[in-house]
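Name: DUF3124 domain-containing protein
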Amino acid sequence: MPAPKEFPSWFLWLLDRGPLALIAIFVTPVLILLLLGLLLDARFANLDHQQEFRLPRSYNPPDADHYPVTDDFDGMDSQWVYVPSYSHVYYEGGSPFLLETTLSIRNIDPNRPIAIETVDYFDTNGKHIKAFLKKTIELKPLQTVEFLVERRHSSGGSGANFLVEWVGSASVDPPLIEAIMVGTAGANAISLSRSGVSISTPTSSPNNSDGS
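Structure predicted for DUF3124 domain-containing protein:
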């Protein structure tokens, strides 16, 4: 008679523990592979998020050459907008709290460009301080341009303001023009914004108030 066949000890060990052991042997590697796949997906997703996130660049004054006038605005009436601003506000019995101001001009029309011809800054007494534009610029649909008055430039005072002149077709949506002021001092912080209002066309160049 042939000798009885002997089985490996590991096989006998599995038989002794029943079918659950067999299932565990085959399922465990699959679970490990699934977990590794999930971990890799999470790491790749995190890398994608890091690539998408970029810190905003520090402010640089707009270069008029980056906003070339390509449309014909001849014959279109210009509109003037007054924008209130504050280089400081008062607190604690009249102490000045210095603020930094960003003038934001947004072309909110999704189809038509506008031209910005004048961006002038005035102090509390109406004296012209600065002309931000040396030549006309064009804002494409939904494009924005910004101008900064730093906190250290406090000559504007609590009644500072901008005058903005823009040109567009009769059917264009008027731009959204705002001044956003922010400031910090120790543990104190403040932020506020003011929207521009349309005004009548000045009878003379506003920046002549300082003789320039």
